[in-house]
Design a protein that fits this description.
Helix 15 runs parallel beside helix 18. The two termini are about 25 Å apart. This protein has 18 helices and no strands. Helices cover about 80% and strands about 0% of the residues. By secondary structure, it is mainly α. It has one domain. The model has no long low-confidence stretch (mean pLDDT about 85).
Length: about 450
Amino acid sequence: MKRNVNMTEGNLFKNIIVFSLPIILSGVLQLLYNACDLIVCRMFGPEHSTAAISSTNSLINLIVNLFLGLSVGANVLMSRCVGMKDKEKGQRVVYTSMIFSLVFGFIVGIFGFFTAGYFLKLMGTTEDVISMSTSYLRIYMLGLPFSMIYNYGAALFRATGDTRRPFIFLAISGIINVFLNLLFVISFKMGVPGVAWSTIISQGVSALLIVLALLNSKGFFEFKFKNIRFYKKEAIDIVRIGLPAGLQGAIFSFSNVLIQSSINSLGTDVVDGSGASSSLEGFIYTAMNSVAQACVSFVAANYGARKRENIKKSIYYSLLLVLIMNFIVGGIILLLKNQLLGLYVRTDAAIEAGSKRLIIIAVTYFLCGFMDTMAFALRGIGYSFVPMIVSLIGSCVLRIIWIYTFFRIDALHNIEGLVYSYPISWIITTAVHTIMFIVLFRRIKFDEMELK
């Protein structure tokens, strides 16, 4: 239990930092491994490998996020159990969550495998990369059950305050991923499919490690194969909390699919540069989103413990940390942007396109971090559909309108004109999330409520 962070007592600012750090490092490691995929292909694979892989990202997120969002429901529910010290319910949450991870992993993986080519064509993926993109996406989908198992298991551990073990497991699988990248692409000349195979093998390792950790858990919950059972009430609670989070992720991904389709229309060099920039932006986003993930655990735990002031402090501290993360990580990336982009792409045109996108995103990305933090805070106090609806209107609809109006104007029909839609949507969505949280939080009567 020493590895677990106390989410309801002590110095909350320090505890949020300690809690967030392994999540941040996990995300950074994952991004480094993904960057390694792109860099190895760029150096040793066929031309436009970066475009081939990056063209699949928004589609992968669209297919996966809906069901992966349910892990947020598992996290919130388990955090509440920790706050209430209800081990019996926590035990039921564990078994139900892991059944969800396996079932949804297979369903989504099979669906993605057979529809990969169709959706990539629908997105307008260019002819010179669509074959590589389709191969990558189909292979990636085969490993989806591994990804689901790891993410659901990691969510359960984080809900109890243990963020260290998921980080260690990801570090181990990531090292394997890098080694296999070099082996498959350089030695076996497998190109983009080699990168995909190394990804799913490493995901299999992380899934195995998380299952072994569950089997050996002696903390807030235990996990035994012989006791696995599906619990209807806990399943409904997980879906009630997690499905809106998944729908929100899918909504964002849908708008990003439209944006990726618009990027595809600007030419392969722009696709290359935008994919490289997106990979670098991921480091900023991961640092901020890790804090938002900490926020939902702290808010849910203190909701379970009925500590109103701690909920407020958790949100204030999280917003401050988001701003700090954007300033530090975004500042470093901007200072080295041309050198970093040059690791991914080969042409000056691609570097220029990536640089234009990166400047806009890196300077304004804290707005996205604020948006995520307030959305997670709403889920932590039991309101999941509100952030979903707000995100649908504030981000997806607005971006679609932008694409079909302002982006059609000649002066804005470029990478900068397309990317401007991001900060505008973040500002609007964050403002509405904040107002809704203030209104709904004031309605909660902690002395009278009955926690379920």
